[in-house]
Amino acid sequence: MKTYVGSGAVLVLALFVMIFQPFGNALSLQSQLMLGGILITFGIWIFKPFNIPFSVGAMFLGCFGLAVGLPPSVVFSGFTQSAVWTLIAALFFGFALQKTGLGYRIALAILRLFKPSYISLVLAWAIIGLALSVLTPSITVRVAIVIPIAVNCCELCHLKPGSKGNSLIMLTAFAMAMVPGGGWMNGALAGPIIHGAYESVPELAGMLTFDSWMSVSLAPVEIATALMLIGSLILFKPKEPLPAKAINAIKSTRLEPISMNEIITAAILIGAFILFFTGSIHNIPSTAVCLGATFLLFAFGIIKVDEIGTGVNWDNIIFIGIALGLGTICSATGITEWISGLIVPALTGISNSPFLFVGVIAVVFFAWRMIDIANFMTTFILIPAMLPAINARYGVHPLVFVPMLYLASNAFFMNYQNSWALMGQAVARKRSWTPGHLAAYGTIYFAASIISLMIMVPFWVKVGMFG
Fold first, then answer.
1. Are 411 and 366 a contacting pair, CB within 8 Å?
2. What are phi and psi of 320, to 5 degrees?
3. Which of 8, 17, 365, 434 could form a disulfide with 36 if both were Cys (CB 3.0 to 4.6 A apart)?
4. In this predicted structure, what is the pLDDT of residue 244?
5. In this predicted structure, what is the pLDDT of residue 311?
């Protein structure tokens, strides 16, 4: 019912804008018609009425843009960005990691290194999350790999479903598959998407690179990760120790001998990450590295020709490709300038204090994440368009928003707002976390994120990111 009420309310608002044109003095007829079409699209993406896929909602946006007279070069501009091709390659990376069994082998091997305790298991999941983030930007793949292992771990430890111990292990595995990879641009799919959004704004083109992403995001994301782990151990750690038999059972789990396909996949993906990391030396674009690595995965037969259609989620690719064009659409129709004129002046009250500015914006992003449940896509696309105006008026460097956007995009107070939480819950079934435990862990993550951003403010001020 909420799905239809929400989408219906957005549709009524969109029709009101298109019929009565309340912004006649600020926006042209074409702009207000396009604004109505964008609102309808957001309603489809956020509320998913009739289970309409994201890609179909994106197709509606493309259809509407062409219908109101926008040229195809504007409507489909997102597909010309390198970010789309980075995403396609990244999804193939995840498919190869899952298909060969390399991801499962790595996760299990790391678990075997630790002695039986809740602290050691939490640390193990952190290392697993970092290792898998290096090999694939796909959080979906990482969650698909770690959740079954976490379920097996809980069962071997005889933890009761719904208990603190069960939720600690399950939620830590889930969170570590999702959060720490945001420290570098290709550690999560949000990276290429945000990069594409920045590139679509002429004033920001070339600003966001692998190096610049790390310079502003690595420290706050990893600090937030560490604080989240500490907070979870304080709040969720049970009094009962883990049985040694259970950990021994994990260590004795047999795996098939490592295959040549796993070795080749590991070599290709590690090589790609090294090239990402050393981009300032060789100047090879990350998109070129991604495409080259994908070529090698096909050339060595890791991915077969008939898996091109099934190896990646083309629904997401179509959705992201058209969504990345939203910035160009809004700029071409004057919507960006109009929105900036409303929002940028409203920031005056918090502009005098960098701490207040970052804190308020971050809290607003986390709150908005409860509405923008389409993986924060609309926010990723629309916020960068306003950053030049914010920079010009308040002297806040656009890169400051990168870690705020990424950290907020992973919010999971409730499972409906985070697709990976829904996925993890579906995979874990009876071994899943309780809603109360998810909300508590999500609150820890929120607090850890805000604290980490506050820690970074003095550094950002020192390096001149606040004028």
1. yes
2. -70, -40
3. 17
4. 66
5. 82
- Least Cα distance to 199 among 341, 312, 78, 311 occurs for 78
Q: Residue 18 region, left (φ>0) first, then alpha (ψ -120 to 50), else beta?
A: alpha
| Lookup: tokens for 429 | 């079934």
The CA distance from 451 to 204, in Å, is: 27
The C-alpha atoms of residue 262 and residue 135 are separated, in whole angstroms, by: 12
Task: Say which amino acid occupies 124.
Answer: A
Rounded alpha-carbon distances, angstroms, from residue 243 to 153, 168, 246, 260, 432: 11, 16, 6, 36, 21
CB of 425 closer than 8 Å to CB of 433:
yes
Q: Say which residue the tokens 């549709």 belong to.
A: 11
Q: Which long-range contacts (CB under 8 A, 24 or more apart) does 351-357 make?
A: 351/393, 351/394, 351/396, 354/457, 354/460, 354/461, 354/466, 355/454, 355/457, 357/394, 357/396, 357/466
For the chain, the helix, strand and coil percentages under 3-state DSSP, each to the nearest 5: 75, 0, 25
Of 354, 364, 342, nearest in space to 454 by CA: 354
What tokens were used for 327? 């910035």
**pLDDT for 247:** 63
Give residues with Cβ within 8 angstroms of 413, minimum separation 6. Answer: 370, 438, 439, 442, 443, 446
**What residues are paired with 396 via a beta bridge?**
466
Please provide residue 373's backbone torsions phi and psi, each rounded to the nearest 5 degrees. Answer: -90, 5
**Could you give the CA distance from residue 71 to residue 219 in angstroms, rounded to a whole number?**
42
In the structure encoding, which two tokens stand for residue 463, read together? 């390096």
Beta bridge pairs of residue 416: none
d(CA 265, CA 269): 6
Alpha carbon distances (Å) from 432 to 16, 146, 159, 208 = 43, 13, 12, 37
Ranges of residues in the chain with a pLDDT under 50 are none
What is the pLDDT, as a whole number, of residue 246?
Answer: 66
